[in-house]
Write a structure and sequence with these properties.
Largest sheet: 7 strands, mixed
Strand order of the largest sheet: 1-3-2-4-5-6-7
Helix content: 40-55%
Order of helices and strands: EEHEHHEHEHHHHHHEHEHH
Shape: globular
Number of helices: 13
Number of strands: 7
Structural class: alpha/beta
């Protein structure tokens, strides 16, 4: 049994494709993409306090950390990989998952054969984003976590996406524990920049954004590419921030091509 709740599908090998999910979802976010990636060896984990994983507070105690931090999440991933006897992965993450993926790659570059960053920010928050996180934390502390994310299924989703996508996201936004979201928001609020991941790993880098994602601009990806010229930028039309739900087939094809390159 691993520290974090894991699910592995496809043909098990020595180099799984580890995918980290966005918040406030769990690893089932990848199900539509996972099905289309077969027979690739796909490994997913639930974030602390989400899905079947232990809470952030439990993991803090496990690793002797006094405060919520992405380093706690990173160490839980490392230990989970050790328990699975996985030495290296192709690593991808969307939104919050991309921030964690970059932090992991910056911390353990020797364990990352390729890095896919999707609709994410691997730097630190600006003042506006920090204020949004603090507001979310305050609502979560009142047990109103859903109130802090209920509009995400509207303004973070492409106008081209069908209503069924919005309804599916909204339904899943109602399932998480407020304390768990507060823990992740605190960890993200206090994080250091993970920009160093772009130069730390030796393998290929994929930078993806939904063409209608208001939170991750093409200009930002271009800035990252200047640091890592080998990186490939792709934009997916008809998608906003939650591309795994909005355009799973297109995203899966891009990820399958990237995995083959990294492997």
């Amino acid at each position: 049994m691993t520290v974090l709740a894991t699910r592995r599908t496809g043909n098990a090998g020595t180099l799984p494709f580890l995918l980290l999910h966005a918040m406030p979802l769990d690893s089932t976010m990848w199900d539509l993409v996972r099905d289309r990636l077969a027979p690739i060896d796909v490994l997913t984990v639930d974030a602390p306090g989400f899905g079947g994983s232990p809470s952030g507070a439990e993991l803090q105690e496990r690793y002797g950390r006094p405060e919520p931090s992405l380093e706690v999440f990173v160490e839980a991933i490392r230990e989970s990989l050790d328990e699975l006897e996985v030495e290296r992965v192709v690593l991808g993450g969307m939104s919050m998952g991309g921030t964690v993926a970059a932090t992991f790659a910056q911390t353990y570059p020797e364990r990352v054969a390729g890095l896919a960053l999707m609709d994410t920010n691997i730097g630190v928050d600006d003042a506006d984003h920090a204020a949004i996180r603090r507001e979310s934390i305050a609502l979560c502390e009142e047990g109103k976590g859903y109130e802090s994310v209920k509009e995400w299924s509207n303004f973070l989703v492409s106008p081209a996406s069908p209503e069924s996508v919005r309804q599916s996201l909204d339904r899943r936004f109602r399932l998480f524990n407020s304390a768990s979201l507060a823990w992740l928001q605190r960890a993200l609020l206090d994080r250091d920049s993970a920009i160093g991941a772009l130069t730390a790993i030796d393998g290929p880098i994929l930078l993806e954004r939904g063409a209608d994602d208001a939170t991750c601009s093409f200009a930002l990806l271009q800035q990252w590419k200047e640091l890592a010229p080998r990186a490939k930028i792709i934009e997916i039309p008809g998608a906003g921030h939650f591309v795994a739900d909005e355009q799973p087939e297109v995203l899966a094809k891009a990820l399958a091509d990237f995995y083959r390159q990294a492997a």
